[in-house]
Amino acid sequence: MPDNDAAASAAAPAPARAWRVVLEKIETDLLEGRLGPGDRLPPERELSTTLGVGRSSVREALRVLEVMGLIRTGTGSGPTSGAIITATPRGGLAALLRLQVAAHGFPLEDVVATRLLFEEWIVRTLAAADGHDLTEARAAVAAMDDPSLTPGEFLALDAQFHLDLADASGNVVVAASMGGLRAAIEGYVRAGAEKVADWDAIAVTLRHEHHRILEAIDAGDAEAARTLVHDHIVGYYAATGLSRG
Amino acid sequence: MPDNDAAASAAAPAPARAWRVVLEKIETDLLEGRLGPGDRLPPERELSTTLGVGRSSVREALRVLEVMGLIRTGTGSGPTSGAIITATPRGGLAALLRLQVAAHGFPLEDVVATRLLFEEWIVRTLAAADGHDLTEARAAVAAMDDPSLTPGEFLALDAQFHLDLADASGNVVVAASMGGLRAAIEGYVRAGAEKVADWDAIAVTLRHEHHRILEAIDAGDAEAARTLVHDHIVGYYAATGLSRG
């Protein structure tokens, strides 16, 4: 392989990998503080000239950074149209996890187990210390009490409730990962809801469980909160046929 | 080619988002089972024609999929050079987490806390049930007993030990995430080791702790294993000035 690579490099300086040069340059600039959130990347043309790679390679690297949530690209092509460093990890992580689940890189079972470990950590963390802002989570739970909600509306609020708890924990890596995992199994969760014969009965159970989870957090009972959220999630998967259990 | 692309872009509606069309098409094909691991994507030219987008947009989407670990691209450009679906999530997750930490999208503190929650879950899981294969983890610990190792060699084996435990847990989402988080803080871990005055003393402590973690797992004592791995990681960060504690 070294020989082949060397030969290929000699013929054309590894054109297929030119985009990696751009990615690595931007990562180094980020690590060494030359670039940070809010900063604008040089325009495509300038990056192309500075790094000695084609504009199409620059564009490929920018797409990677955009999908990963590192930059927001402008719509124009003028001299000030350079992409802006945003570092909003949630979308990128969600896209990656969703695609990997779709491609069977991540078994659904492992995604569910990982979501569970995050959820348990989140409610334990919220119960163990005061000062977490649960306003959003309480609002989601209150909104779910409306009996006229369709299953789709209910599930959207339900997902929001769990994301609100993750956000309230204050750990953005956990919140982004949890959001990504939830997005990755979104389709399965909805399909599960469509399969149940008596949705109203399930909704009553879920409402009750959400209230009890908040009560355990408010009471500072980490172990009760952990058990409740565990049973809440495992119970839903069992009821809708998502889990093996 | 850049000229052709420019001309095509000028004529086509919303040219900047054409690459998203390609991503979404591939995701749908994955979800609906028309594509799976080992399958080959159509060549660039064909995707371009079928989807009605420029070849540069196809290439941008393929780069995104490649960095995310979804596909491996060929080096040639012949009719059989289509990318292969691989779904190897580890590299993609590591790249995303590393870039987000570099761009300050993820605070180092939250990365460390998340790594800790994974590590605790991993050893609890390993201790709670028999049948996990710890051969690799034991080999890494044995190799670290060699007193002639440089700090760099020791840390490489140390990282391997923790990844081996993650792999042994059997949850590939946890293993890939843990590997990604570890890669994201790699630079900080090494910088920490360089700052300590008495590396040999730290190495003695780390060796001892690794053996005790394995012993607790072997004894099936989940709570002891959890506490040991917690103190092991927090202790290293404190000793090397990585944590605030």
Can you describe this structure?
Chain A is mostly helical. Chain A has 11 helices and 2 strands. In chain A, strands 1-2 form a two-stranded antiparallel sheet. The termini of chain A are far apart. Residues 1-15 of chain A have low confidence and may be disordered. At the A-B interface, helix 2, helix 4, helix 5, helix 6 and helix 9 of A face helix 2, helix 4, helix 5, helix 6 and helix 9 of B.
Outline:
The structure is a homodimer of 245-residue chains. The first copy, chain A, is an all-alpha fold.
Number of strands of chain A: 2
- Cross-sheet strand order for the largest sheet of chain A: 1-2
Question: Which ranges of chain A are low-confidence, i.e. pLDDT below 50, for 5 or more consecutive residues?
Answer: 1-15
Q: Which value, in Å, is the CA radius of gyration of chain A?
A: 23 Å
Biggest interface and which pair forms it? A-B, 58 and 58 residues
String of helices and strands of chain A: HHHHEEHHHHHHH
Give the overall silhouette of chain A.
elongated
What does the main sheet of chain A amount to?
2 strands, antiparallel
Discrete helix count of chain A: 11
Distance between the first and last residues' Cα of chain A? 48 Å
Strand content of chain A: under 5%
Oligomeric form of this entry? homodimer
Output mean pLDDT of chain A. 86
What proportion of the residues of chain A is helical, as a percent range?
55-70%
Structural class of chain A: mainly alpha
